[in-house]
Amino acid sequence: MVLIQDSVYGVAQTADLVLAASGNHLTRNDGFLRAWSKKDGALVFEMKTPNNQEANTVAVQGKLAAVGTDAGGLLLIDLATATVLQTLQGHTGHVLSVIFDGNEIISGGGAADKTIRVWDKISGLETLRIDVGARVGCLAVHEDLLVAGLGDYTVRVFDPASDDPRHVLTEATDWVRAVAIDAQRMVSGSDDNKVRVYGVPSFQLVRVLEGHTDWVYSVALEGDRILSGSNDHTVRVWDARNGDALHVLHGHSDTVYSVSFLGSEIVSGSGDNSVRIWDAETGASTRVLDGTEAVRPIEEVLGATATTAAAKEALKAALANGDPAELGRCKLMVVGQGAAGKTSVVRSLLGMKPEPTHKSTVGVKLTRTDAESWEKSKNFDSGFERQAYRAAALRMAVQEEQTASEMQQTLPRRVSQGSFNPVFTAEVQVELVPEAEVARRFDIEEIEDMAGKTQSGQKIFFTIWDYAGQEVFYALHHIFLTREGGVFLIVFDMQELLIKQDQAVEYLSFWLNSVKLHAPTAPIIVVGTHYDEALVDANEVEEILVENLSIDENENIVTNPAGELSFFPIDNMSRAPGHASELRAAVEASASSLEAVSRKISLRWLKVLDDLLKLDCDHVPFGTVQELATKYHAGDQTDELLSFFHELGMLVYLRATNTLHGKVVLNPQWLLDKLSRVIADKIHVKQMRYNRELQNAGLKNDFTVLRKRGIATLSLLKFLWNDEEVDYLRKFMHETMLMSDWNFHEKSLPRNRQNESLFLVSSLLKNSRDRKLEQDIAKIQSGLTRVLDFSEFFLPDGVFARMLSLCAQYSGEVKKNKRAPQLAGDRAIVRFGLSVFALEQDDNKIWVRMAQDAHKPATALKTLVSIFRGARDAVFRDLPWELLLQSPSDDSVLVRYDDMADARRTEVAEVASVGVGNALVTDFEPFFEDGSLTEDENDTGTVGQASIPLAAGLKYHVFLSHPSQSWTSCLGCQETEGNLAEDAMKRGIRESKCYLLFLSKTVFSDAVKMELEAALREEKPILVVHESDPNRPGFAPFSAYIAAAPASSKHLFKENESMPFQRRLYLAEAFYKELISRIKKSPYRWGGREWDSRVQTDEFAQPGTMHRMHMLQKRLRYLGFWVALFATVFARSKLDGRTSSHIAAA
Ligand SMILES: Nc1nc2c(ncn2[C@@H]2O[C@H](COP(=O)(O)OP(=O)(O)OP(=O)(O)O)[C@@H](O)[C@H]2O)c(=O)[nH]1
Ligand SMILES: [Mg+2]
Known about the structure:
Rossmann fold, 28% helix, seven-stranded antiparallel beta sheet, 34 helices, 26% strand, 57 strands, globular, binds guanosine-5'-triphosphate, Methylamine Dehydrogenase, Chain H, alpha+beta
């Protein structure tokens, strides 16, 4: 027990307890909540505020206390166990007032916050926020009326119907610091020294009580008595019926900040650091409490704790509602140069003994741990049971007094407009665990045990991703460095930094940039290893880091309080038990600061994860997860829950394309191991090269070709992947642009394998040491030259390799004049048919030089820029870059593309060049022969149209559904407004061969529903195309389309039958190719004819990386029709109609 040394700002009472919240304005760090037994005045509870802020206000409900502190702190405390049940986060400044209202907590913020917030007690979620625009001095509630006394001199009365006050009372002439309300009256106290009494529910002023000689800080109501406490050091008791002053209570020697009235007992708290209890009848002070009283356990006052039956009920309710749980998981990503000591740092964190020999990590190594003990955890579980216990214990603590039936009703009902927590909806009760299993699976006693351990901010489990440092693995980074759920450790060898400063600094800079690019807000902890080396001086290292990398200015970097450093020096060879303790503490603190880590999720999500992990598979189809989620009424959240678990490093779920999205990798290590069998560096390759099995399989030569030239045979891939999921892994690598088709003759293959599929793994290409390639590049007489300039930030590893990959793919698809590209890691010569060009990377620039005699150079360049955008998007969207044009008349002049486009638009003659001086606009005309370059995604180019006759009675090939913004922009249709009149729409559909629907987020408007019905009635074939880019505004997960589709046509929407659309010039033709091949494979016969050989498929056939299609509900007559359809669509045909458009035959 400690003497109260600070002002008592808030008091509250129950029949048994008196509570006081205190703090110190001067020290600002001494907040306490205390409670005394009323019976004998014993001190039964004492808790320092966990955030070290002064406690301004307290409310009590049974065994629960709510405390508002400075700096936005609002805490729900279980008095019985002295634990913080919930930390309610949201207020931005001091919390000045708090009250309980049934299952809700209502709080008011001070001048920096000016809001009233309503919180759900169980979930801890904010369910309503009212912005009142003034300091909220005090709150009171009676039935459905909420009263707030404000700093703008008003009292406002709210009801649940609206955020707008029902009454605004303006009688006070200064701050209103106090309000109280019951069925008959509402009382306010203000800085004009007056207490005002209003009638309820009229809120008419009844009388003004005068007597206080200074500000009125607090008021209370009990029956016909009014109580007020003031800055004049007195407490006054008034008769509410006539306004008579009954008692003036003298005793406090400083401001009375707070009063409470219950039965015949008055409690007051004062700036004289004491709490007084008074007899309301006599006005006598019966007890003075100052914190020095004898101490007794609170159980003696509160009585027995909950029963097993209550625990069971609480568990059932928590499961049924899918109560919120804090997952408490974090992804710890360890990166840095090869042999920097990354794995050793992980070992230090885990308390493992030093490993003096370097066993280089392959790919990425995952370790799971919990932070409390920093021990490797053997069993990786979802934490579902633990979280269910916690939720149940929380419910028990929060809801003891309520009956089980009420418990089911406690989830937020009033989620307001802004819906702060969209994931958490529990209108439907779900049996997460069957009744019979509950008893078997859960140990009810655990809940009772847990009652005291339900603090928020529990221990955190880490999934440690130890990345290999060798450069070839960087290609994997964009896939596995995640944005929100993780902390980064950038590890470097301090000795290396001191010896080879330039190189080490360059590496560190690369890593800092990479992390900034992939996770712009993630905490970064920089770790310097080899602290044991004699040469190493941490201050010298710090100086180098500050000087060369301005490491001290990077706000994401966690500073090391010991020695005031921007990094954490460590000796990984140390056997001292605590040698990593500072690092551990920094990791834990950074993790708990992450929103994703403390985010509350539903137990339903956890149950989905739990079921998935129980399957004990390396991977499952997305559909499996969807089914599970649907079972637990979270089907519409499948995508979100998977993305969340992905961010926290628990599984791998990528959404960029259908293949990626179609499989959820539950064991990331499985995927990482498979990938790093192909993308391996030379240390690991050595072991493989002499592998018996490889020789026995006759693949030694294949392996050499892969290592030397990045070309893999299918047999080799099968061997490396152990014949497991070869198709998926191939597609995975394709779609993450790690691999592309290699459609060229390979002479090193034996004759009997000449037809085998080949692939290019461009990240294995080494920088050129090939004189021949250099000479060949030099020989190219360059025509148009364009530069992709990244010098504003940096050019991450992998962009160039991906460009090569895509170029090789595209080049292999062109039939005419096909020749294999000549490739190296930093330069290449590629042919797109008759166009030859050179690609070169130097520093932060990529140079693209078309040969002078290139066929259609402007078109080829345009395709290349589109390819680059594809590569950049795969690596990182926000990567800044600029497109420069080299003057055809003077090699030394570079001009920004945007400047040039502007100049042409505004018809000026000259434009500033990147260096000095001006350039003539007309010189650059050859670059603009094929239109604009800036956004190929709005301009998918032109494809020759097939002339396909239409049957009699038909006027159009396609009726294009209500064109959405995204659809029209990608097709280049003109924007249309309004709807077609119903009969025009019906006529249009009747006169069209088919109906085409492009799915985007808000597709199912009434107009589209009508069209769809009309098309169904007319038995028109319906073709569905969907937005496939999750980063576009029109994107929605497929489940959302299905959910939104009208019942009559739901059966049409199956993901595997819709064709994904990608907005890339170089992919446009692949779209047709896929379409045609699907139709070829289709079981339908076309009007009795087989595939119409007259259609020149080659014209359209550009094998692509993707695409599934089709959605043919009805038979189609002619294949040619489809060709025409897409030819027409992509040819930006004249569209006719308003919202709905008909695309005429060519
Ligand atoms: N003396 C000393 N040696 C260290 C320290 N940290 C790591 N080493 C040694 O440095 C070598 C490389 O350490 P690793 O932890 O395997 O390096 P890594 O960064 O994981 O390497 P890759 O996985 O290949 O990228 C090993 O031989 C370690 O024993 C240290 O603090 N002091
Ligand atoms: Mg390692």
